[in-house]
Amino acid sequence: MGRVTARRKVVRIRDGAVTDRADTLVVEEPMEIRVDGRALAITMRTPGDDFDLAVGFLVSEGVVRRAGDVVSARYCAGTAEDGTNTYNVVDVTLDPSVPPLDPSLERNFYTSSSCGLCGKVSLDAVRTAAAWSVSEDPLRVSAEVLAALPERLRSAQRVFARTGGLHAAALFTAEGELLHLREDVGRHNAVDKVVGHAVRSGLLPLRQTILMVSGRASFELVQKAAMAGIPMLAAVSAPSSLAVDLAEEHGMSLVGFLRGSSMNVYAGAHRLSDLPA
Asked: How confident is the model over 159-172, as pLDDT tens digits?
């Protein structure tokens, strides 16, 4: 798995028996995102799909809307003390037609793997204007299809099976077909990687798709889905009150506690095709 996993010695205690063994852990490293050479943010992430992560981050911030907005994404060489490439600094070059960055995007230069909003100047800066409306998206999906998504997500997580330490985000069709999946130590990073892949492939807006995440549904994840034109977000755990408010504001469907045949639909219940009229 390269830099995605690492081996560490542990003392394992099971039913009173003590053994020394090596354990496989998920790697977490900082990645600095630069835009046209200017440092914008640092996020803690699992290495891999870094260009998708950087571009997806810019989509969620309203900087990038389409593949043509990005001229290139590259690792910056000479970032270590000895001049070698750490592969932890990504510089995205934008097309000259893209408006200059809004100063409100400054994040005090750090975000953690668990809270992508840390350091935001104000809540108003978080309510990024979406490029596409999802309120009229014709997506319709059955409860049966939704109920099958968590297991399909879990079975496709290659690195989680070895480490147990990664979140996942995946795009599905209304029929439950897996379109794209990414794993990361951070929930928001996994979503950015999925969205970044989509925009670099010219697929935005992501009409009639479902974004499934392995953890809870936060305000930020709803925002990222809205910015990518995704009409439904489903999560295995709880949403926050602000996430529900934002989903309703955008006309997005939000499903939480999706476990087996049980689920809570917090917003946009009209998109479930088998609910009573």
From this structure: 665 666 688 999 99
